[in-house]
Write a structure and sequence with these properties.
heterodimer; A: mainly alpha; B: mainly alpha; 69% helix
Chain lengths: 134, 137
């Protein structure tokens, strides 16, 4: 019974393409970065204020533009499957920096704590460790 | 071997045993546990802050149920037992929570949006798919 159910679920494409789960994972890890990069350009003035006054990063405009370009570029590389391991390593470093600068010692994501950044960094480590990634 | 199972166990428990896949599975499970612990430790606040505003009654019973499910499923996912049903149950709960609470806040997590919840659910679904594929090979 259990075997039959599992076989039917697997037949919905997974058995034919066991790499689909890895593809979904990689696209999610990289794709989630891109809206943050685009958002920094769309809310540029507010981001500069936050980077300068809350995070204490100066010159704030340079940090905002640099972070935005970094997020878009690294996210796109991971999504496209190009230089995935180096890009994932950069993602991990970026998340460590984010935790140090922006999360203020809290844990839960609902209070802008480190939870999501730590989770994302771990997902980056998973990508780095995957033998199928180049 | 990172994940052990005996031949007599339910087939759905068989999990891929590579390091990245094990790390992914453990991360998906572990990150549920603080949410269960805080609902237990700060029970009064959890009732007051979250569940009353969702209109779920009796609120203390709902908090206890969610706390128990998150803790149980989190531990089961971490140890690699009943992974698929645990993930399915947690995804249903998170979906309900998302619809009831944070969906109105938009996408980005830092303004209270659904981003992290969606990311966790995708990662959990990947773990479940890998478990299903591993079982049917």
């Amino acid at each position: 019974m259990t075997d039959t159910v599992q076989s039917r679920v697997a037949d919905l494409g997974m058995k034919a393409n066991p790499g689909l789960a890895d593809l979904v994972f990689r696209v999610a890890v990289g794709g989630m970065l891109i809206p943050h990069g685009i958002g920094k350009f769309l809310s540029y003035d507010k981001e500069v204020e936050v980077f300068g006054q809350v995070f204490g990063l100066h010159p704030a405009p340079a940090w905002v533009i640099g972070a935005a370009l970094f997020q878009i570029a690294v996210g796109a590389l991971i999504v496209m499957g190009k230089f995935v391991r180096p890009a994932a390593l950069l993602l991990v470093a970026f998340m460590i920096g984010t935790i140090a600068v922006a999360n203020h010692g809290a844990w839960f994501w609902q209070f802008t704590g480190a939870e999501y950044s730590v989770f994302w960094a771990l997902m980056g480590v998973v990508l780095v460790l995957k033998p199928s990634e180049g | 071997m990172l994940v052990d199972y005996d031949e007599g166990s339910w087939p759905i428990e068989r999990m891929p045993a590579t390091l990245p896949d094990a790390l992914l599975r453990i991360a998906v499970g572990v990150f549920l546990l603080p949410h269960a612990v805080t609902k237990y430790v700060n029970h009064e606040n959890a009732v007051k802050l979250f569940w009353q505003s969702y209109g779920l009654h009796p609120t203390s019973v709902w908090v206890a149920i969610i706390c128990f499910v998150l803790a149980t499923c989190g531990v089961l996912i971490v140890v690699g037992r009943l992974v698929v049903p645990s993930i399915a149950l947690t995804v249903v709960i998170l979906n309900c929570g998302m619809i009831l609470s944070v969906a109105k806040n938009g996408w980005l997590w830092n303004v209270g949006g659904i981003e992290y919840t969606v990311f966790w659910m995708i990662a959990a679904t990947v773990v479940a798919l890998k478990a299903l594929v591993a079982d049917t090979r």
